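Hi L., both proteins are below.
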Amino acid sequence: MIEIGIAGKPNAGKSTFFKAATLADAEIANYPFTTIKPNIGVGHVRVRCICQELGVKCNECIDGWRFIPVKLIDVAGLVPDAHKGRGLGNEFLDNLRQSEAIIHVVDASGSTDEEGNEIGVGERDPRDDVKFLYHEIDMWLYGILKRNWDKITRKMKAEKKDASKFLTEQLAGLGFEEWMVRDAIKGFGDVSTLDENGLMEFARELRKRRMRMVIAANKADKAPEDLMRSLLNIQEIVIPTSAAYEMVLRTAAKNGYIKYLPGDSDFEIIKELNEKQMRALEKIREFLREFGSTGVQETINKVVFDLLGYIVVYPVEDENRFTDSRGNVLPDALLVKKGTTARELAYKVHTDIGKHFIYALDARTKMRVAEDYELKNNDVIKIVSSV
């Protein structure tokens, strides 16, 4: 399952975002360091199910929407100089190493200082919080490289190894892939000759490829217009977000007061409410009209599809009825990276099926596809194997 970290300074709304996305229990309070140990839960990406397009009825979607699970990790709040051990320090950064990407929850209202303490609305520029997280991760990576750099470079020269391959081996525990290291090395020439400034710049280039982020501009419901506009203009994917509003809507839907799916641009009231509840929901509706959604679901979708480049494929066993062996229609929707081949899909379904792969079939056209066929979004594929 894809793993996504939820990061940011204390009191920016990370745990509220996590709870709104997962409905998992997470302690939420209006003070720094509410989260000590990472909360782990299951969120979802939201996609149009292909059952209607194929003319079949599945039991896996809601009103034509398929929700595919992803793992969310809400880590402790980060304070300045965490890379030196302040706050929860490197424990926070270590928790991020297992994540494929990061949702950086930023207080877009500017109502908390760099350590998460409450200040007046608009008193802090949220762009500083974006830079601050980048800086802490850069310094963390730099520290890891610097500790062993002389030893690494001596060994690299002695063994005459390819720098990108060798450094990937050294950084494997941080989740680096060879393409990330190779790409980061471009422009540095012989990395073994880097001085401290060069090593710092190299750490920054590594972070850009490994720790990719979407910014959830949280507390957008009370953010001054000029702060929100300046945040939206940075060179990142930024989503105006109100995790608190999403929490209200999901709780109300769960308790049967409204009809609402995560990511909807509106909701339907289906049970009588008192005046206070109606006023609260009307305020949320105004936010939805302005921004199109609460931003929580959109943020998760942006990470998975736009940032990480995943697509959805549907493996089936019966290419005529689009079912598995038990007759379940479109039982599985898998998230796979763009460029995944038919044979690689077979391994994802089951290792034995991959090992004994014979061929794959496009269930829409009933035509065979090559084992190196690169899957497309919404492909429905039958894998034929000798097991």
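That was the first. Here is the second:
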Amino acid sequence: MRHWSEEDPWADDDPGLLVRPYTVTGGRTSSTRPGIELISLISTVRPATRDQRLQPEQNRLLALCRIPTALVEVAARLDLPVAVVRVLLDDLLDHRLVFVSAPSAAGSPDPRFLQAVIDGIRSI
């Protein structure tokens, strides 16, 4: 049995400020826009005005998305669950501060190529 006095390799000396996801989203648990996918690109359209009171996470999101960035990457960089980032995006979209572009099928690989890769892996 382990005691608290033993050193735990998973313990963090400085866990930082712990903010629950429901606090960040104001209690909302899901996005009102179902079309935002993990690889959808988010782009900042304009900075927030002083009248628009944003949360620190939303300000960080705006800064991250000056260059179009995938939703999944934004979530990773903000260290927040994707569902939380989707809810934060709802507010930013309502304020017209960001633009979300759907993933393009133009860059998707040829199905024959994918099948050749799968066949090659199976033969190993």
